[in-house]
């Protein structure tokens, strides 16, 4: 009887083992088929191209199924994976900018799956060693990897919650790097405190849940042979490699890549200055005799034409421009747009031969100041903006080339503020100027805290709230500065022209100022005014008539370089294209061709096409 019972027990054990092996095989196949089914569903929606679909199908399914198998098909693995998968899907579908950001939900999920499975392997590796120090180190890597995997999508979700559903982007990161922590902090402080509290609470909650789920998994981590772990690592590596071509479109990765590329191009621009100057010498850049004179360019800051009476705004906040626009020799451009809604990107293009429509490398694009100086112009740069240093941005590098430089803003650690209002710049205009000369004034304009942009006694408007009243007061104050600069410039012998062109616009109604992640077209609606004196109009009547003809033509200020080459009468200017110059009869840019936000936005999307309402 005992032998019979033993045989039956042995047979029962063997049968159970067979059932367990069959169960494991079935579970492996089920996991693989489930992964295939999900991938196939996304393939039917057209979100994955065929080649990537095939590779993800093979490597991704096998890697996920193998990872689950190594964990003994435990439910804790599936629970934790489901939690992470939900976070990655939320990061794609809950934010406005992610819906059309170019990355399919399947790819975000694929990377989330790969990172999760890879992090899990560290706990299994820890179970392979008996040495306490090694186990602790591997477990630390395991927990860090799991929290990082969960925190990656939460970074975007958290910022999206604070910024009303907008995605964290390289534009915001570049704005911080190009300005200062104080300005970035000021922007973040403008977001509701309640949302900050909620966002941080959710972040801690998500991290806490992930640590708890990771702990539940690691308590029963089975010991596996290292070769098996290495095999699964290979499958995961192949899976991640297959989906990596599209990873660049994932919001956080794209943010890092684009930021790095932009900063690299800025450094190259500074490094290749001597090459650009040598090229200018070889080109023998000259000035047409009849064009020689004194020109004054005023670069505005955060000036929106939607808040100017000259362009139809209800408050009479531009009394000088209203009159000046009607004077003989004045051309008011009614459909002018900024090429970007932030200072550095906008002026980098506006003041150089690089624009949205050509293939010129920024490092090779000579600046307006460099070309004017090479042509024989005496160049001046008078600024109320922070100087930073010559290697900070292309704009500061351009300014550093001028023959005469004046920087009145002493707050280098806080470029969003200034020691003096723009009126202080008037005292730094030269008393005597020898033609040909180009004088550039860079205002603080209507930037940032509007009430800080003008003296208290200049406050004129009340009744629309502090923000709108402050902005309109700043617009009126700048209008007075323009008048004072113009009157001073008219005293110069050979004064030929006055140009007012801001870097970008502003959206004071929403309180989002000019944040690219909260873009509105008001942020790129800019005024653009050119006045040419009688002598200029008599000597170069065709150019003046061309400007008048194009007063209603759509235009972006990254084409300002081309227009200035014609106005200043500079010959042989590098990368000058008459088809891009609004001062040339060959200007042919149309509403359908023009873009803003460096190609990301079209004119057709703008609900206000920029024509005067009155």
Keywords:
single chain; 614 residues; 13 strands; 50% helix; 8% strand; elongated
Percent helix among the residues?
Answer: 40-55%
Strand fraction: 5-15%
Biggest sheet: strands side by side, in what order?
A: 3-9-8-2-7-5-6
**Radius of gyration over all CA atoms, rounded:** 31 Å
**Count of DSSP helices?**
19
Summarize the main sheet. Answer: 7 strands, mixed
Model regions low in confidence, pLDDT < 50 over at least 5 residues? 46-52, 96-103
Mean pLDDT: 81
Q: What best-fitting shape do the alpha-carbon axes yield?
A: elongated
Helix and strand content put the structural class at: alpha/beta
For the termini, the CA-CA separation is 109 Å
Total count of strands: 13
């Amino acid at each position: 009887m005992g032998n019979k019972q033993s045989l039956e027990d042995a047979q029962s054990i063997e049968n159970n083992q067979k059932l367990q092996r069959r169960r494991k095989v079935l579970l492996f196949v089920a996991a693989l088929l489930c992964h295939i089914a999900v991938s196939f569903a996304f393939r039917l929606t057209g979100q994955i191209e065929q080649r990537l679909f095939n590779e993800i199908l093979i490597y991704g399914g096998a890697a996920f199924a193998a990872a689950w198998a190594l964990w003994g098909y435990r439910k804790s693995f599936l629970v934790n994976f489901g939690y992470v998968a939900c976070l990655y899907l939320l990061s794609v579908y809950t934010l406005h900018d992610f819906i059309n950001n170019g990355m399919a939900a399947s790819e975000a999920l694929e990377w989330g799956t790969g990172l999760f499975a890879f992090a899990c392997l560290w706990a299994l590796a820890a179970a392979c060693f008996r040495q306490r120090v090694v186990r602790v180190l591997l477990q630390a890597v395991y927990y860090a990897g799991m929290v990082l995997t969960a925190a990656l999508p939460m970074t975007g979700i958290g910022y999206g919650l604070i910024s009303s559903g907008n995605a964290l982007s390289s534009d915001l990161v570049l704005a911080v790097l190009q300005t200062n922590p104080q300005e970035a902090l000021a922007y973040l402080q403008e977001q509701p405190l309640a949302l900050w509290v909620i966002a941080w609470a959710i972040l801690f909650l998500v991290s806490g849940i992930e640590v708890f789920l990771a702990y539940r998994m690691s308590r029963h981590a089975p010991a596996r042979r290292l070769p098996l772990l290495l095999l699964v690592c290979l499958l995961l590596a192949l899976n991640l490699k297959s989906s990596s071509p599209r990873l660049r479109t994932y919001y956080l990765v794209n943010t890092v890549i684009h930021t790095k590329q932009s900063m690299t191009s800025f450094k190259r621009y500074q490094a290749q200055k001597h090459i650009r100057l040598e090229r200018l010498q070889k080109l023998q850049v000259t000035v047409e005799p009849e064009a020689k004179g004194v020109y004054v360019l005023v670069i505005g800051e955060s000036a929106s034409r939607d808040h100017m009476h000259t362009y139809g705004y209800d408050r009479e906040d531009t009394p000088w421009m209203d009159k000046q626009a009607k004077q003989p020799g004045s051309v008011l451009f009614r459909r002018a747009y900024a090429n970007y809604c932030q200072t550095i990107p906008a002026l980098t293009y506006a003041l150089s031969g690089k624009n949205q429509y050509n293939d010129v490398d920024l490092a090779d694009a000579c600046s307006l100041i460099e070309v004017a100086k090479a042509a024989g112009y005496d160049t001046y740069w008078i600024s109320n903006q922070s100087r930073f240093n010559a290697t900070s941005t292309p704009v500061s590098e351009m300014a550093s080339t001028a023959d005469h430089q004046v920087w009145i803003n002493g707050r280098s650690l806080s470029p969003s503020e200034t020691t003096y209002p723009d009126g202080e710049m008037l005292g730094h205009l030269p008393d005597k100027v020898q033609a040909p000369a180009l004088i550039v004034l860079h205002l603080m304009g209507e930037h940032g805290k509007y009430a800080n942009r003008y003296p208290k006694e200049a406050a004129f408007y009340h009744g629309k709230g502090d923000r709108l009243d402050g902005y309109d007061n700043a617009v009126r104050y700048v209008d007075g500065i323009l008048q004072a600069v113009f009157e001073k410039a008219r005293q110069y012998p050979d004064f030929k022209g006055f140009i007012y062109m801001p870097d970008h616009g502003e959206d004071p109604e929403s309180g989002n100022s000019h944040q690219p992640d909260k873009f509105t077209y008001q942020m790129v609606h800019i005024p653009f005014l050119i006045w040419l004196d009688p002598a200029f109009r008599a000597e170069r009547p065709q150019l003046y008539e061309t400007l008048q003809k194009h007063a209603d033509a759509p235009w972006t200020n990254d084409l300002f370089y081309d227009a200035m080459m014609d106005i200043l009468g500079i010959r042989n200017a590098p990368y000058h294209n008459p088809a891009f110059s609004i001062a040339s009869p060959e200007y042919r840019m149309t509403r359908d061709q023009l873009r803003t936000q460096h190609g990301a936005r079209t004119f057709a999307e703008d609900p206000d096409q920029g024509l005067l309402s009155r």
